[in-house]
Structure formats: C-alpha cells, structure tokens
Amino acid sequence: MATINDNYLKLKAGYLFPEIARRVNAFAETNANAKVIRLGIGDVTEPLPEACRTAMIKAVEDMGNRDDFKGYGPEQGYAWLREKIAKHDFQSRGCDVDASEIFISDGSKCDCGNILDIFGNNNTIAVTDPVYPVYVDTNVMAGHTGDVNEKGEYGGLVYLPISADNNFTAEIPSQKVDLIYLCFPNNPTGATASKEHLKAWVDYARSNGSIIFFDAAYEAFISDPDIPHSIYEIEGARDCAIEFRSFSKNAGFTGTRCALTVVPKTLTGSSADGSSVEIWKLWNRRQSTKFNGVSYIVQRGAEAVYSEEGKAQTKALIDFYMENAKIIREKLTEAGISVYGGVNAPYVWVKTPNSLSSWDFFDKLLHTCNVVGTPGSGFGAAGEGYFRISAFNSRANVEEAMKRITEKFPIT
Ligand SMILES: *Cc1c(COP(=O)(O)O)cnc(C)c1O
C-alpha cells in the first residue's frame, strides 16, 4: 500500500478555528435572536480599491485580443510589477533591493511554507510564542519537529516567548539557531519592532550564519515614522534575511491572491560539503520548476496599487481599519481592559481581565456581549491569558461590539 507523509499525523487537529465555530454555533442554537458580531477573523472586509479593479478589467480586455493576449508569464512575475515594487516599497525607503530579487507569488502563506523546500532538514528553527501557526505547521509537515506536547509545543523547535514583559519582542536567543521567523507588525499581538531590535537580530544572524524569515504582511499599517517597514532598512540584512510581503492586507487581495518574496542575491547557505551556495538560485529554480506564475490579470491589479489613485485608495483602506483599531483600543481601555497593539497593526491584543483563561474570556464575551474574538492560547502556549481582536470589520459592527462591551463590563 502507498505510504503517507507521517509528519502530517503529528499536527494537532485543526483546533482553534473549528473550536471557535463549534462554540459559536452551540450558542446560536440556544440563542436564536442574538446578533453575534465576529471580531475574530484575520480577513479583510472592505471592497477592492477602484484602481485595482479598473486595472484588472482592462487586463481582462487585453486577454480578449490577439495582440495583447498573454499566455504563461515569467515564473518570477512580470518585470513591470517587480520594478514598481522595488522602487516604491524598497528603494524609496533606502533599501538596496533590486527588481530581480523580487519573486511574485499567489500568497505569503504558501511562500512561508514553500521556502522550506530549499533548506536542509537539520536546521535549528526558532519561532516566537505566540506565533502565526503557518510557520510551525509547515515545519511539522516537513519533518523538522518531534511530537507535540499537551501545551501545544513541538519537540525540536526553539520557542521564544513574547509577552507584555518584553514588549512582545523576543529576547535574542543565547543558543545558536539556523532559521528564525519574525513577523512585524505582528500577527497576533499587533506589536512592532524598533530599528534597534531588528539590528540585534541581524547582528545575531550574521554572527551565527543564521537566516531570518521576515514576514512584513502588515507593514502598510505602520504610521510611526521611526518603525522600519522592511528588514532591509537594517544594514547587513541582505546577507541574512528573506522578506515576505503580500497585497492581502494592504489592498484587500485576500481573495484575489498576490504576494512577493525578496531573496537577495548576496544571501548564502551552506551545502552538505560545506561550500557556500546562493539562496537566490535555489529559490529561482524552485519557483521555475514548481510554479507557473500569478495570473496576468491579478498582477495588473497589484501594479495599480502603486499608481497615484491606487496609493490614495489603499491608504484610505488602511486608515479605515486603523480607525476601527483606535475605537477598539479606546473602548476596551474605557471598560477597564488592558490592551496592546492596534496602533501600527490591525490587531488589538487584549490581556484577559481577572486572570481569566483565553477560552473562559472567549465564552464570557460570547455569552454576555455576543462578540467573538480569538483566544490567545490558540497561537501558542505563551498566548494563554491573552485574546486577539481584529480591526478588520465594518465600522457599524465595531461600534456595536464596543458598545456592548462597555455597557456590560467590568464583568466578574
Ligand atoms: C494574512 C497574513 C499573511 C498573508 O498571507 P497571504 O497568503 O498572502 O494572503 C502573511 N503572514 C501573516 C502573518 C498574515 O497574517
């Protein structure tokens, strides 16, 4: 009989979101009239910017006439999109990133998982706790971990705890790790990293021969001018970091699908015989072999993000979500709840009141306010005692949810 990849059996059963759905459904069955508001989702809610839609409609027309029709595009993405990204997202901020180092893809989630294809199986891997679960689960699937314990921690991974005590930025490890996942602005905590913090990581990585996987999916939500948007704003990062970016959160492309990964040509790793190998070449080979590029229509939509109208419209989208985040922060604070994040990120990370567990707070919020959020413990053992509230929602829903909470709290 055909055998399977046994590593999949090590994965915790998809627990978090199914369990949320189970509790919400059970509540809705006995409370048919309750209008439940979901602030748990990590998906955008507002329509695509007009500039992107117009560009995609035009691209569909291109596909309808023989002269402009496009078949397979370059696996790495069209040069006109890569050049705009290099100029507007990186060079404008002083980052030394060339268009040829940018790989267009259909999502950061897949890139974060696929990147493991080009790395060895004996690397020591560090993740923060709590963390975006994709980083952990893709390593489990690739056989880079042992089994999971009752707290949800996998053997063989190095967990770097983040909490209010360290401003939700991990201490630099005392041991040597080979691959490090960092996500700033952070999902789920909404925390950001200063230049000094990122510099400490870059220095660590360079002196240990480590590579940083830097997930900047939320960089567009940064409003504080001192906070870096890219790891390449830090000197030396070209020699130790890969950056993942996405159009999902800044331009509402979660259902349209377009993202990018930056692999500097100066980045190297070690082969089994100890020689130094360019990572760019491996990723280029991986993408040209296993990927056939993002649709022309979608890439034209992404390109429009960099037009004058596109910039104004994406900024308006971000301002809209960040106003939601501000309302959430203010109202929860008014209700006597401690909040973090939500200033340069669309997530507010809440300390559960009265030392409630993440799930007890979830139940209280659901039953007393009919509001749904995400229990922090679902993002890792050190997320216990915290709760994520997302700013991705309509203004009316955010206002109504906060009204219910301020009226019902403090709860005992
Ligand atoms: C939403 C999100 C992404 C983007 O994923 P896509 O596949 O591009 O939609 C990447 N990283 C994190 C942490 C996210 O929350």
Structural shape: globular
Helix content: 25-40%
The domain tally reads 2
Distinct ligands, ions and cofactors found in the model: pyridoxal-5'-phosphate
The low-confidence parts are none
Would you state the CATH class of the largest domain? Alpha Beta
Structural class: alpha/beta
Strand order of the largest sheet: 2-8-7-6-5-3-4
Report the sheet-strand fraction: 5-15%
Average pLDDT, rounded to a whole number, is: 96
- Major sheet summary line: 7 strands, mixed
Radius of gyration: 22 Å
* Strand segment tally: 15
CATH architecture of the largest domain: 3-Layer(aba) Sandwich
CATH fold-level label of the largest domain: Aspartate Aminotransferase, domain 2
Helix count equals 11
Q: Secondary-structure element order, as H and E?
A: HEHHEHEHEEHEEEEEHHHEEHEEEH
Query: CATH H-level name of the largest domain... which superfamily?
Result: Type I PLP-dependent aspartate aminotransferase-like (Major domain)
Termini gap: 57 Å
Describe the structure.
This protein is of the alpha/beta class. The chain has two domains: 6-47 and 309-408, Aspartate Aminotransferase, domain 1 (Alpha-Beta Complex), CATH 3.90.1150.10; 52-307, Type I PLP-dependent aspartate aminotransferase-like (Major domain) (Aspartate Aminotransferase, domain 2, 3-Layer(aba) Sandwich), CATH 3.40.640. It has helices at 16-30, 50-63, 79-90, 108-114, 133-141, 195-208, 279-290, 296-303, 308-334, 358-369, 395-408; strands at 37-38, 102-105, 125-129, 157-161, 179-183, 211-215, 241-246, 259-262, 268-270, 276-278, 339-341, 347-351, 371-372, 374-375, 386-390. The model has no long low-confidence stretch (mean pLDDT 96). Pyridoxal-5'-phosphate (PLP) binds at residues 42, 107-109, 132, 183, 187, 215, 217, 246, 248-249, 254, 259. Pyridoxal-5'-phosphate (PLP) binds next to helix 4. It comes from Dulcicalothrix desertica PCC 7102. The modification N6-(pyridoxal phosphate)lysine is found at residue 249. GO terms for molecular function: L,L-diaminopimelate aminotransferase activity; pyridoxal phosphate binding.
